[in-house]
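tool=predict chain=A
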Amino acid sequence: MLIDIHAHAYRVKPPYIGFCTAEELLKAQKIHGIDKSVVLPIVSPEIYIPQDTADIIEMARQYPDRIIPFCNVDPRAMTNDSHAPLEELLEYYKELGCKGVGEVMPNMRTDDPKVQNLFRAAEKVGLSVTTDGSDQLDGDFGLYDDPGLPQLELSLRRFPNLIFFGHGPIFWGEIAKLETPGEKGVPFRFGGGGQVEGIHGGSCLPNYMQPIREEGVVAKLLRRYPNLYCDLSDGTAYNALARDLKYTAEFVKEFEDRMFFGTDIVSPDMPIPQIDALKQWKRDGVISASAYNKITHENAMRFLNL
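tool=predict ok
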C-alpha cells in the first residue's frame, strides 16, 4: 500500500506548468500503485497561480477514497499583519475535512512575524504544517532559512505542539554537514532564466551524490524535536537518501516512525524514483520490511486517522 503525503492538482488545467487535474492525478496513482494522495493547495504567487483551498476540498468530496485535502493560507492574508486571526480560516477548513496546512511557500524569512503567526494559528487549531524552503530572498519561492536551519529550530522550539514536515532542498540538503554555506541551495541566474548550470547540474546540491562524511543538522533536529517529521517527496529527499545507503540505513532505523512517503507530483508523467528505490532498499536489506511499511503507509494512516 502507498499513501502519498504530498501531491498537487488543480481544478482546471492551468497554463505554462502542466499541473495535474484531479482526474490526471488519479491516473498517475493507478500507474504508480498509489492508493491515496494528500493534495496540498498552492496559495502564494511566488510559486504559481494561487489556488482556492475550496477546490481541493471539492476534489476530496468527489474522490473521497483517493484524495485527502490539506488547506493553505498565505501568511500575509487577512490584513498582512503578524496578529491576523489566521486561526479563524484554519478552523473553518479543518471543519471541512482538511488534515493539515501547506504547502507554505511564500518567499519570506521563516522567522518573519507573519510566518510565525501562521505557525501559531496552526498549532492552536491542531493542524500540521508542510513548508518548502529557499536559500535566497527574492527571485525564488519558499521560506528562507540560514545554513544550519536556525529559523526552523526556533519554530520547533516556539511551537512544540505543532508538527512540521521537513521538505525540499533546503531541508534535505542538510542531511550532511555543509562544507560551505553555498552548498545549501542551487543559485538561479541573475535576472531570471533558471538555475545556474555546471557542477550543480540542476540538482539540490553540488555534492548530492557524494558519501556523507559527517552527519548534518537534520538528524540532530529530529533527535531534539519530536514535532519534526520527514516528507520524502520530490527528488531532493531521494537524492539525500540515495547518496549514501550505509548512512541511510542508520537514519531510517532511527527515524522510521516519522518518515512519510510522498511524490510532490506536479505533472501526470513525472518520474517518481522513490517508489522503486524504497522497494529495492527493502529487498537489499538497507531498510527493514517494518520500516518500509511505516514509511509507505502506516505512519500516514496513523497521522491522518485513516
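Residues 192-206 have pLDDT under 50 and may be disordered. The beta strands are 3-7, 36-39, 67-69, 100-104, 128-131, 133-134, 143-144, 164-166, 228-231, 259-260.
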